[in-house]
Amino acid sequence: MVEATEVFFSVTKLFQSKDTGLRRMVYLIIKELSPGSDEVIIVTSSLMKDMNSKIDMYRANAIRVLCRIIDGTLLTQIERYLKQAIVDKNPVVSSAALVSGLHMLKSNPEIVKRWSNEVQEAVQSRAALVQFHALALLHQIRQNDRLAVSKLVGSLTKGAVRSPLAQCLLIRYTSQIIRDMGNHSQSGERPFYDFLESCLRHKAEMVILEAARAITELDGVSSRELTPAITVLQLFLSSPKPVLRFSAVRTLNKVAMTHPMAVTNCNIDMESLISDQNRSIATLAITTLLKTGNESSVERLMKQITNFMSDIADEFKIVVVEAIRSLCVKFPLKYRSLMNFLSNILREEGGFEYKRAIVDSIVTIIRDIPDAKENGLLHLCEFIEDCEFTYLSTQILHFLGIEGPNTSDPSKYIRYIYNRVHLENATVRAAAVCTLAKFGFMVEALKPRITVLLKRCIYDSDDEVRDRATLFLSILGNDDGLVETDNDSREFLFGSLEAPLVNMETSLKNYEPSEEAFDVDSVPKEVKSQPLAEKKAKGKKPTGLGAPPPAPVSGFDAYERLLSSIPEFATFGKLFKSSSPVELTEAETEYSVNVVKHIFGSHVVFQYNCTNTVPEQLLERVNVIVDASEAEEFSELSSKPLNSLPYDSPGQAFVAFEKPEGVPAVGKFSNTLTFVVKEVDPNTGEAEEDGVEDEYQLEDLEIVPADYMVNVGVSNFRNAWENMDPENELVDEYGLGPRESLGEAVKAVTDVLGMQSCEGTETVASNARSHTSLLSGLYIGNVKVLVKAQFGMDNRKEIAMKLAVRADDQSVSEAIHAIVSGG
């Protein structure tokens, strides 16, 4: 710190230098050193003098440095100069002021928002960078006023933007508005789509690519809307510029995930890119072809892939492996050639993520294609013979313990497993002991041999391995034949945690040792889903200059803490489930309201998250009046209004209802937002004393059966199913009517029940005529539920479903069937 201060004072002496290059270094050093409040005063006068200099380079740099180092008090003194700089004729000075405004918007938003008129004028500038920076700043100023943003975009889409960079920003803002407004307007046409399509004919390549990408990422995009974008991208595939080829093939690769048929016209052009010198382009081309190709082209594509796999980095190899995994699910008859390819590359050199991707792909193939099981397990056994990654070895051993005992000849895997006990580290040895025990328990003929092997393990050097061997010997040596003991052993060896492992870990870390023991039932059962890369691609939010403000933190733990801190709700008991937020207002309204449904045993609490998007208004005594006339089983207990709701400061209002204990009551609720609105002076920020009472009609809200189900997964569905009492199983058949695809029917049933798909069964091949979906969940009252849903489609696209339900309580099995028949 002392050295930095000495450097700072020495550098300030160089303000007397006339050397342009040296002066630029002075500005850079001062900005990077970020002097304290006492030191800033020393250079402020020099910088303010330079800000009014006749040399434009000094002016631009002085503005950038001043805005970085001064606080809000000094900022008001130079605000007039900054406003003048924004509309300066010199584009370097103007851009410097605009970029400084973007930085200061985070720390002094009220001051920057007063520059709107000057920034609006700069948007009309002929200088490309000035227009780009001005548009970015103007959008940031107005981003919380959706109507103002819509008007800004509407005016600029008529042709006022000349800068290609600004045009790209405008396309991003337009895409965001389209997402906020919903898929289509009342006339059936997508708003602003014509503007995006017109950008495909722009003379700048970056604008064309941005427009094509925006069109392909539209929610629910149709084939007709995709066609012009695909046509443009196809032309770029044969461009001499590598960056254009890469951008085009990457965009087409993303489109192929959701609309593979739309990309098939580009297959010939992409096949020529397989031999491209840029291996990134070649990788994207081959993975796109894997997604869009037909069954007859699989063999040819696999030969081409083999030729260049050794030339690309691991990150691109992972992309290829994931594409092959999807291809195998799509064309199950080709599993042999695909499995052989995966087993060959598994033996080659590679990093952990690459090897894990291959193992995951083989596991997926084994689970989805029964014929591939034995061959795939042998490939995995051969891999762990020479595997350097402990995590992968333990995961494969665990998987072997689940699937191996159910094969035609389980004994052939024992050698590979027992080798791990002699040749690996303690973690892998412990996993191998568990796997051996599972074979011994499930395969009666192998029990004596397994017992001998486990007895050898009790002399292991590691205490964890010895303890496990002793425990499993005790289980295997239990010959009293009691069914109850047998079921307990099965549950211990093959059962899964009732709560997600991440939630269990978090709860254990938060537990403070006391006289009260840790309660496993207190661990949240809600599955905290991790978004996949492909999910991120769809409907992706803009980043950087176009990024929206961060959303408030939410989650089951946060909700539980919030509700328990409110005295009115503290006596409701343990929270069972919190829903995802449900929007109750349109995208462009002046007040934004969404609701979270909190489900308790005999109560329901509605949490209304309110945001005021009108800068000139302050809302007080904000409350939601709920009409429950269409929800007869619910009676309102209490409400907790919001005292004050300033502009752009989210707040919560609550309404609590009582319902019958443990009963999945449903109903519809009408909502009206009531408040007192007070005008706010834009200059002083103070609200008027007198206000006007007003109300705002919100959308209706429904409590549905899925609100009483927590989507909890199980690691091994088959064992969990077998451990459930068959006496509680109920089976029935249903006609689901005509559907576009089996996938649509699977999603509809999963959504109605609110359950978690297991073992990847949520994925349905596009050409499938039958499918089995495995679902699990926790019903209100903490009752475990498992569902097997078998779907079939006839030539008229009529869907039939056979539904088998097992639960810890037979009445819950009946309730699940009632939900399906009523939904």
Characterise the protein shown here:
There is one protein chain. The chain has about 800 residues and is α+β, with helices and mostly antiparallel strands. About 50% of the residues lie in helices and about 15% in strands. The strands form 3 sheets. Strands 1, 2, 3, 4, 6 and 8 form a 6-stranded antiparallel sheet that branches. Helix 15 packs parallel to helix 18 (about 280-290). It is globular, with a radius of gyration of 32 Å. The chain starts with a helix and ends with a helix. About 35% of the residues are buried. Oligomeric complex. Pfam families: Adaptin_N (PF01602), Coatomer_g_Cpla (PF16381), COP-gamma_platf (PF08752). Belongs to the COPG family. This is Coatomer subunit gamma. Its main location: cytoplasm.
Explain briefly what this protein structure is:
The protein is an alpha+beta fold.
